[in-house]
Prior knowledge:
The structure holds two protein chains of two kinds.
Chain A: E1 3-7, H1 12-23, E2 27-32, H2 39-49, E3 53-57, H3 66-71, E4 79-82, H4 90-95, H5 97-125, E5 129-133, H6 146-166, E6 172-177, E7 180-181, E8 196-197, H7 199-211, E9 216-218, H8 222-232, H9 235-238
Parallel strand pairs in A: 1-2, 1-4, 2-3, 4-5, 5-6, 6-9, 7-8
Chain B: E1 8-11, E2 18-24, H1 29-38, E3 43-45, E4 59-62, E5 69-73, E6 78-82, H2 87-94, E7 99-100, H3 112-117, H4 125-128, E8 135-141, E9 147-150, H5 156-162, E10 171-178, E11 180-181, E12 186-194, H6 197-206, E13 212-217, E14 229-236, E15 255-256, H7 268-280, E16 286-292, H8 293-297, E17 303-304, E18 315-323, H9 327-341, E19 349-353, E20 366-374, H10 379-392, E21 396-397, H11 407-413, H12 417-427, H13 436-440
Parallel strand pairs in B: 2-4, 3-4, 15-17
Antiparallel strand pairs in B: 1-2, 5-6, 6-10, 7-11, 8-9, 8-10, 12-14, 12-16, 13-14, 13-19, 18-20, 18-21, 19-20
The structure holds flavin-adenine dinucleotide.
Residues 12-13, 43-50, 54-55, 63, 83, 105-107, 110-111, 113-114, 117-118, 120-122, 166-167, 171-172, 300, 400, 435 of chain B line the site of flavin-adenine dinucleotide.
Amino acid sequence: xxxxxxxxxxxxxxxxxxxxxxxxxxxxxxxxxxxxxxxxxxxxxxxxxxxxxxxxxxxxxxxxxxxxxxxxxxxxxxxxxxxxxxxxxxxxxxxxxxxxxxxxxxxxxxxxxxxxxxxxxxxxxxxxxxxxxxxxxxxxxxxxxxxxxxxxxxxxxxxxxxxxxxxxxxxxxxxxxxxxxxxxxxxxxxxxxxxxxxxxxxxxxxxxxxxxxxxxxxxxxxxxxxxxxxxxxxxxxxxxxxx
Amino acid sequence: xxxxxxxxxxxxxxxxxxxxxxxxxxxxxxxxxxxxxxxxxxxxxxxxxxxxxxxxxxxxxxxxxxxxxxxxxxxxxxxxxxxxxxxxxxxxxxxxxxxxxxxxxxxxxxxxxxxxxxxxxxxxxxxxxxxxxxxxxxxxxxxxxxxxxxxxxxxxxxxxxxxxxxxxxxxxxxxxxxxxxxxxxxxxxxxxxxxxxxxxxxxxxxxxxxxxxxxxxxxxxxxxxxxxxxxxxxxxxxxxxxxxxxxxxxxxxxxxxxxxxxxxxxxxxxxxxxxxxxxxxxxxxxxxxxxxxxxxxxxxxxxxxxxxxxxxxxxxxxxxxxxxxxxxxxxxxxxxxxxxxxxxxxxxxxxxxxxxxxxxxxxxxxxxxxxxxxxxxxxxxxxxxxxxxxxxxxxxxxxxxxxxxxxxxxxxxxxxxxxxxxxxxxxxxxxxxxxxxxxxxxxx
Lengths: 243, 444
Ligand SMILES: Cc1cc2nc3c(=O)[nH]c(=O)nc-3n(C[C@H](O)[C@H](O)[C@H](O)COP(=O)(O)OP(=O)(O)OC[C@H]3O[C@@H](n4cnc5c(N)ncnc54)[C@H](O)[C@@H]3O)c2cc1C
């Protein structure tokens, strides 16, 4: 029976991932801030699947706590899904360093610090899968969200290097790039439906990517083409665009 | 509710009324407390299967993401789940374990919270009562932010005003209820034709012993065939009655009606045609059937969005009950008015209710009739007229199907209306939980 650790477990995507793996009889570790909110999810997954589910307090922003967090896990995971992220308020962050630092810390430093701990352990045992949920926003910096984007860009580069380093140890690293995710199902779509994935869809993609050992996955394939175009616009033109 | 969010256009099953609302879909119970404290009034919404304005207001909080099973006792057949779990999700979990819902309405796409707030009834009301009859206990978050455990024995006033209280007494957080033991997912049924109204009412009495009974009635026929109908009876099939098939049928596929039909599709001719067709299918007077539970309980669920055949203007479902005493006369008089008018639809359902506890629940011993009518300019004044007849016979209108009743009718027909209004004033002084129904009926 596999053990799955989900970091940032209070998002809808994370919960959908837990549902899918629990239904495949995996044990689930849900790690997040104020993790007690997930008590109903824990009960539900246990009752339905007869697996073990644990709730672990974890704060992505508190990088100094990460090694300790990982050390105290009684059962070490076979798969780690790093799904936490913080979009933040871009405009506020331009003038408010605290907000800016928070965006950079959670999306980049926090992910690196916990995955460093995971990677060291996996490498020693020569097994494991790491999934990092990054973002298409990291593919090219745009004026509307380049703080978040640059942190995700760093995270994408980190995952790529990690995959390269761990390959010889038989450890697989997956980079997931969702486009827009519809997390407010009823609230009406403010994003174009064609470009917006449902949390369940993202979760299904993550499982498939792990099973098929995919490297970099765009949840909706159309995003690969959109970003290909965006990445190829010459900088001299790009800097004039309102993106 | 958060302020200053852009509104979304929203409507319930009958597409009337349509309103602008700010909608929240929280993932966690604690968010609900925050919404109550932060200010803007709102109403809880389940799956929007009510026919009217009960779950509509300028602020709407959807329960659909609070849909987890919290406890299950497989031996005793008791489940506790969060308010937003759909009955379809409950069935998918319990049926393979040999259990079924204690009470189910004619669609399985409603939430547990919605089942409690409307205190829904099913085809077994004469035997098993309504949903509230099977609640072991529930947790309610009151408008003042307190979580209260209640049941028929504990905090019973809150309990009985919440069952059928249309979400106005508090937010139902989770519900523990007992299930019905079954040996299969099939129903052995019997269909009997009745030539006219008195005959169908007699048949209800004659076949009282059946767990499930309901009749489809033709409300357009006049003269000798006035009230012709088909009685449908059912029992959960025993294991040995299922010969070759799987004991628990797979969930069936669905067919969807992709757009709103123009309303002329529903003129009297098409209704007559439908009725004729319906009768041709059942040539014999009495037919035995063995059907999967979905076909028996939820014949319309297999056509997703069938509500759209009534067009963009929407429709109204008129459902009333008249007490057993003088009930025959009452049904007769009202049905006559409806058939004279000629607006009745093919979806007229007649059922005999058994006795019922409760303070504000719709159900009471007697006959209930439900029919869909597309909205037209004269409809509401016609229904006001019907309301008066219903009132004369001591009956009342089902709130979860109502979009237009006048406040005085409600206050004169529900026996505990005054206590209910007082209770709401005392428990929600700041008017945090409000719906358009509450405003319209002058409840808050
Ligand atoms: C095809 C069809 C057949 C039907 N057949 C029957 C039938 O046979 N018998 C019957 O009784 N009804 C029947 N109904 C009506 C339906 O069962 C009720 O309207 C039910 O309440 C709908 O539940 P919902 O989850 O969709 O809630 P909504 O329609 O969204 O809301 C209904 C009420 O529940 C309240 N509510 C929802 N969640 C909560 C909560 N968490 N806390 C407090 N209040 C809450 C809302 O405020 C509102 O007042 C039928 C409806 C349809 C569409």
